[in-house]
Amino acid sequence: MKVRIGISTTDKLLEIEIDDPKAFRKTMEAAILENGLGWFNDSRGRTVGIPARSVAFIEMEDTEGGHTVGFAPG
């Protein structure tokens, strides 16, 4: 699953691939409540630390479902 995280202090967008969406949500929600740091291992083997105070938004996209948005003919 692809996750995009907007960072409030910059115009940057962090994009990671995760394997367990439920664990990701649980960890991010806990980090936000504690104003802490969420650590994740993405599907490429990288470790990413996300400071909760800098999160502007989180967008999760299911890459398995084949859901697309657009106006081009299919």
Describe the structure.
This protein is of the alpha+beta class. Helix content is 19%, strand content 38%. It is built from one helix and five strands. The protein has one helix at residues 21-34, and strands at residues 2-7, 13-17, 37-41, 47-51, 55-61. The strands form two sheets. A three-stranded antiparallel β-sheet has the order 2-1-5, with no helix packed on it. A two-stranded antiparallel ribbon has the order 3-4. The chain is globular and about 30 Å long. The model has no long low-confidence stretch (mean pLDDT 81).
The pLDDT mean sits at 81
State the end-to-end distance: 23 Å
Query: How would the global form be characterised?
Result: globular
Strand line-up across the major sheet: 2-1-5
Number of β-strand runs: 5
Beta percentage is 35-45%
Major β-sheet annotation: 3 strands, antiparallel
> Which consecutive residue ranges, at least 5 long each, have pLDDT under 50?
none
DSSP helix count? Answer: 1
Helix content: 10-25%
Structural class: alpha+beta
- Report the radius of gyration as a whole number of Å: 14 Å
* Pattern of helices and strands: EEHEEE
